[in-house]
Design a protein that fits this description.
homodimer; alpha/beta; 4-stranded antiparallel beta sheet; about 35% helix
């Protein structure tokens, strides 16, 4: 089959995005059907007279979003996306120049490590934080005219900041909401506590397994039965979800923590269908690090596919700005806004109005976008250095979860247990983390030999040295 | 009876404090016994060759603390303080030059009022906030050397700030604790949520009735049965408390909100005795506005009387600095520290590290103390203006809860209902607030004709104009 993609080099839109949009729209319109095979990237690049990497980026994006699937040694096929008629609207608002984001709560309580190199999956690179700008915004905010900022504020957070977040979420994440649906709070843990008060007590909550344990502990702490649900390579399994009798499912579709799984469109729709099947079911979408993708465009939020108000969207600035600023937010669907007013609007905001104002300026003046772009390039450099160095381990390890986020997964091909791998690494002064600690009460899991390697806080040199040491440590595994 | 108080004008300690300390110690040693009558302030001032107001201040302080009682037309007597042997240690550390604090959460959700003068009991006077100093501390904190402040912090809060709070609480409030017992959080509502996770679910909580409704709603929201307990003029009644089968009692001994009742020493001891009677009982002491007293010294915290780790102390900087800074703290007794480590230490701090650092500097450099002293003088001026103006209403109203805090109570002698009083006031453009909204499910209460008049946000002129208008509005009640 031949694809005649009309390309306009003068349009200002990158060629790979033009290819992506054209093919995606063909799939949506039904002109390309499930199971149809696409030309190889080599062939299409020759036909279109563009570089192969340009085509590959477009394909990667569509695979990440679930429009395409690869079958090893056979090629690339249009995925089954039936029932997605309403989907087109939201993510077409997706804008490649902007992105957005979430958590950092993953850091508290991390023990100090005394070895040489620590591949901690927590933490972010603070070296490039625009300290001067932040200081200047603080100074400009703390002027006498702003004295009223010391008075009590809106329980939901400052309106101008909520409006800036709304605008950002809309263009960068395809999230559809009004500012009045946004509630700002001091971090995702607090916001989950607040959300619990809005939802009330009688719910069962399903979570991906493995998952973000801090969220699990908060939800357990609020008294909810939490049902771990196994994932396949597309994410949480809807059949198992249905079996749990849960009425709320907490998921991380853009980049699952810790597996790095990107949930394809079809699975997202299946989860939405699950939510729609009974009154009062909700999905909590934790969009914690969606701004860091190193191939293609950001993947639109699940929230944008939801026309019925069944998705509760959560984001934070902990990963994208700094954990210390303690600002995150909830986007409540309409049906829950009433419950918020009745049950939780008496909770005063947990974020200082001055800090809210500074963040507002940071977003409004374009600093956030510039900072994200800079950090994305920096993290991509580290990511690429890590992948490059890992080639030396490919004979012994599978590599997964790459091209997004701030960590990758490494699985021993012989199935050597994670504790042993970590012990060998420690002897060489390198700290690595097993995946099993992310599991909710599972003694058996398919990740017994998998390690999580975070690279955000390391330099390229440290990453290379670390992998070299690991290569030495694991020479016989 | 004659009291030979040894006074040393050169000691640097104010004369009234010398008198207070001497008589208090005589009572503690048993040299002055319950029921003994003290000389009148006129007589004692003549004997000691000091002004009568000096003696009166010492007496007022002892009355507020429960060491003395007045019997109208008869004089001043030593109160029954038996069983208080262990009490002496803590509050002798009380330092007259310093004071400390709490809430401001009382503000959220206040509707806008369009009349002339609003005697809202919420809000504080922000006109005198040392904006320049706060800005400078921010600027000095946001220097490149402090880059690490953007990384994740201690879940309990920054150690230096906790140490500064410990030191302050010790000298100003007689609170005995280590910095490791202090947990900093974004406001008293969040801290109550966190405390609920530390305490666990199976408790019954007793609260004074009327009380601080926001705290009531948070505790109800956490699923606890909350038992309202009536007060007499000394505060929560221990006999009624015992009947509730509650195992936790939430009290505001220094200045009950909203009644303004100062709990005498004897009642404090009775509550401590109640807590000690069974394993696992606790008192939550909300010390929300103890820094604003306009006669005598601050009253030491109940926590300082507790030798067995049964008091959970709560404070905030919302009233004493500004509601917008969103910083409060818990002081956990030893037995609950373990529970914190097990059940709640995974909650990341809800306060920005930068904000914590700025507050630390504010305390450490003496700005807080100076600010408090200035605000105390300003509020005292408003308080005195209000009391002066209220003389015109004394024929029709009882006045209570004066000399502390930021509001007073006004009760109609004829028992006219609060709604009618408020309606008459509104006609003259003055907004006043009924006390009944502070009650937990009570249709009948002894405050049917009582109004709460806050004065923090008004100028002296507004206060005088407001009372003049009320005098007009209520000329026939």
């Amino acid at each position: 089959m031949e694809l005649l993609v009309p390309l306009d080099p003068q349009s200002g839109m990158p060629l790979y995005e033009q290819i992506y949009r054209f093919i995606r729209d063909e799939i949506r319109k039904g002109n390309l059907r499930a199971g149809e095979r696409l030309p190889s990237s080599r062939l299409l690049s020759e036909n279109l007279k563009v570089s192969r990497s340009t085509v590959q980026m477009a394909y990667d994006q569509m695979m990440a979003e679930g429009y395409l699937e690869t079958v090893p040694c056979k090629g690339c096929f249009v995925a089954d996306t039936q029932g997605l008629a309403g989907f087109g609207e939201a993510d077409s608002k997706n804008d490649m120049g902007k992105r957005m984001t979430s958590p950092g709560e993953k850091e508290a309580g991390e023990p100090v490590f005394s070895g040489k190199i620590d591949f901690s999956p927590r933490g972010i690179d603070l070296e490039r934080f625009p300290f001067g700008i932040w200081r200047r915004l603080n100074r400009d905010t703390l002027v006498d005219d702003n004295r009223e900022l010391f008075g009590p504020g809106d329980p939901k957070g400052e309106m101008d900041l909520r409006e800036a977040i709304r605008s950002y979420l809309h263009s960068a994440r395809g999230v559809n909401c009004q500012a009045r649906q946004i509630i700002i709070g001091a971090g995702s843990q607090y916001l989950l506590m607040l959300l619990s008060r809005i939802l009330g007590d009688s719910h069962r909550i399903a979570m991906e397994n493995p998952t973000y344990k801090q969220a699990y502990r908060v939800l357990k702490g609020q008294g909810y039965p939490v049902c771990p649900v196994d994932m396949d390579r597309f994410g949480m399994r809807p059949d198992l979800l249905e079996e749990t009798n849960a009425d709320i499912a907490y998921v991380m579709p853009s980049h699952q923590y810790p597996t790095g799984i990107v949930m394809p469109v079809k699975r997202r729709q299946e989860l939405l269908d699950w939510a729609l099947k009974e009154e009062g079911r909700y999905l909590i979408e934790d969009d914690y690090d969606s701004e860091f993708r190193y191939r293609g465009m950001p993947i639109p939020a699940l929230q944008g596919m939801d026309k019925e108000g069944r998705v509760i969207y959560m984001g934070t600035f902990s990963k994208s700005i700094a954990p210390a600023i303690r600002i995150g937010f909830l986007v409540l669907p309409e049906p829950l806004l009433k419950a918020y007013e009745e049950k939780a609007s008496f909770y005063a905001s947990t974020v200082s109005r001055i800090d809210q104002k500074v963040l507002y300026q940071f977003l409004e003046k374009g600093h956030y976008e510039r900072h994200l772009n800079r950090m994305r390039a920096i993290y991509k450099g580290k990511h690429d250095a890590l992948l490059g160095a890992l080639k030396s381990l490919e004979d012994r390890f599978f590599i997964e979860g790459e091209y997004a986020g701030l960590h990758i997964l490494l699985t021993n091909k012989k199935g050597l247990e994670e504790g042993k791998l970590a012990a060998l690494a420690a002897k060489e002064g390198v700290k690595v983390y097993g995946l099993s600690s992310y599991f909710i009460r599972s003694k058996q899991n398919q990740y017994q030999s998998t390690l999580v390697l975070g690279y955000a806080t390391l330099t390229k040199e440290e990453i290379e040295e670390g992998i070299s040491l690991l290569n030495q440590a694991w020479k016989d595994v």
